[in-house]
């Protein structure tokens, strides 16, 4: 609903003393224009000539959301207001044509009664009119100027003049029918009920900022985007706690192969970048974070760093020739330990296992095969300290006690098999996840937010509030 104050367009700089019956100000540079409470910042200012106020067509109308066209061949200016009124005039002339066929506000008959000029002619179908203005248009320094009063009256704008402050006010008022249309538009956009404050803000801002969307108005009133709108950066929970979202991105690496049940398989290395998020607040008693499909991970960073320094995580990674293992892939770990326990890999033991247990019960081994088309191919072997439950990691629904800062990570584990599979992947078509964050405060208050997590075509995270 483009009902631009635009008409206001016409804002018509109604300075016009004439329009208000007041004396015109002495200095063009002092004149300020306000449309529905917002000052218009124009590079080309209104001017006064012989007691008549003129406005720069393009600057005023486009500031209000209208569209201005220029036909150089015939020197004609056309103005399409957001309310559906079409005005046209030859630059330097005084004859204005106005078409109200698609007007949402003023009818041609109503405009004819208001028209300030002479020789006003209403068309037979009463949808358009022509007016000869007492004060015509002119061109100055490449800009076309039209008299304020005439345009304001042809476009249905209420013009006010404050002589002391040299301020022209232009008001675009909504009638009850238009207001009901805005209500319908708001309900359709929000898909829910809304309070009177939001409705009032929506009507006021749509009048002065016709290009704004429902989401713009909602965020201005509530401090955060509405449900269903993409969000990024920080989200505020009830003004007490902020959730900083990660700039997560899905990445597919090189094509690799491995063996499963004796069969060579192909796929892609895949990773998730920047998947950590931060929750900060004061007076927090507890936090619960849940993911419907993905995997949440909360790391005790102090314990993690301590164990890493002590070598209690990844012990070592080394390459072995492709012919090192002859067993079927399903039996490869058994063959590795047979070689290990019979004295093999002595150089690895000397480099990484001095003073450390060498029992297979304490380690997990992983294998990646690469270079199948090369001679020889290579096995990359990684040995990790085995933990039935890593003491520095909490996964699943995260439950955190009193803490002003919570750092956690979210991994779309439900997508990893698809990302690693051989063949193309449409990131934007991948299934969404839902993240729910609930915060209980020491004063007994509770905040909760539910977010939908998906990805765009480039694999970047898209977050929407549900």
Automatic annotation (TrEMBL):
It comes from the Bacteria. Coiled coil: none annotated. Residues 35-102, 135-172 form the Copper amine oxidase-like N-terminal domain. Keywords: Signal. InterPro entries: Cu_amine_oxidase-like_N (IPR012854), Mao_N_sf (IPR036582). Residues 1-23 form the signal peptide. It holds the Pfam family Cu_amine_oxidN1. This is Copper amine oxidase N-terminal domain-containing protein. It comes from Feifania hominis.
């Amino acid at each position: 609903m483009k009902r631009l104050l635009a008409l206001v367009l016409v804002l018509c700089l109604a300075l016009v003393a004439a329009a208000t019956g007041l004396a015109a100000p002495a200095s063009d540079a002092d004149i300020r224009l306000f449309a529905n409470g917002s000052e218009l910042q124009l590079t080309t200012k209104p001017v006064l000539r012989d007691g008549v106020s003129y406005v720069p067509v393009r600057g005023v109308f486009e500031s209000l959301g209208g569209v201005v066209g220029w036909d150089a061949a015939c020197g004609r200016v056309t103005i399409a207001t957001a309310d559906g009124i079409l005005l046209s005039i030859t630059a330097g002339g005084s004859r204005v044509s106005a078409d109200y066929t698609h007007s949402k506000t003023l009818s041609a008959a109503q405009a004819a009664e208001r028209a300030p000029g002479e020789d006003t002619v209403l068309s037979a179908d009463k949808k358009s009119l022509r007016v000869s203005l007492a004060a015509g248009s002119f061109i100055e320094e490449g800009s076309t100027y039209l008299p304020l009063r005439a345009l304001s009256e042809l476009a249905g704008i209420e013009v006010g003049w404050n002589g002391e402050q040299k301020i022209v006010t232009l008001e675009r008022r909504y009638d009850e029918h238009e207001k009901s249309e805005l209500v319908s538009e708001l309900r359709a956009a929000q898909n829910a009920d809304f309070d009177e404050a939001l409705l009032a803000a929506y009507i006021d801002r749509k009048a002065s900022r016709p290009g704004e969307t429902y989401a713009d108005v909602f965020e201005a009133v509530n401090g955060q985007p509405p449900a269903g709108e993409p969000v990024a950066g920080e989200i505020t929970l009830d003004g007490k706690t902020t959730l900083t979202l990660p700039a997560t991105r899905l990445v597919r690496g090189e094509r690799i192969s491995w063996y499963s049940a004796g069969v060579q398989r192909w796929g892609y290395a895949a990773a998730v970048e920047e998947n950590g998020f931060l929750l900060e607040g004061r007076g927090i008693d507890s936090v619960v974070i849940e993911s419907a499909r993905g995997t949440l991970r909360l790391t005790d960073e102090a314990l993690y760093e301590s164990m890493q320094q002590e070598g209690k995580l990844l012990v070592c990674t080394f390459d072995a020739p492709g012919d090192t293992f002859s067993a079927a892939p399903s039996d490869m770990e058994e063959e590795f330990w047979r070689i290990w326990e019979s004295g093999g890999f002595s150089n690895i033991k000397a480099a990484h296992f001095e003073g450390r247990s060498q029992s297979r019960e304490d380690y997990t081994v992983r294998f990646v095969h690469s270079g199948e088309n090369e001679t020889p191919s290579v096995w990359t072997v990684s040995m990790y300290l085995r933990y039935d439950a890593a003491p520095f990691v909490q996964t699943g629904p995260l439950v955190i006690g009193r803490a002003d800062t919570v750092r956690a990570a979210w991994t779309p584990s439900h997508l990893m098999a698809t990302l690693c599979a051989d063949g193309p992947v449409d990131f934007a078509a991948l299934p969404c996840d839902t993240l729910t964050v609930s915060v209980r405060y020491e004063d007994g208050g509770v905040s909760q937010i539910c977010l939908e997590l998906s990805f765009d075509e480039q694999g970047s995270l898209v977050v929407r509030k549900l």
